[in-house]
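[User] Could I get a sequence and structure tokens?

[Assistant]
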Amino acid sequence: MIAITLLIFAYLFWAIEGVSSAAYDLSPIDVIGGGLALLLLLATIQAYYNDGLLISWLLVFLPVFGTALSGVGVGLIRPTPMKSFGLAIGIALFAALTLGTVGFLLGTAIRRGFKR
């Protein structure tokens, strides 16, 4: 449920005109870098409490998919819907496999470190 909510939020954040630019104006950090760091933290917390690699991947995949689907980071000029969809899946899959896996490993290591 959290991952689906993040998907909708990420898509609307970048798709609605003026919302992302207002966030850039208000935030002193880079919005995309901060978002990726937040997703890494979310995957780490999830792995600490639940120990599920698939869920860590999903928590990263869906928001990045929503962001890429809205056109952020895709870099295509007037892409076809299939190219946009395929590229969004590729970008989100890459992010999920890297950030989700690192978050899972960190969360699992922290949990096992505290059990000692």
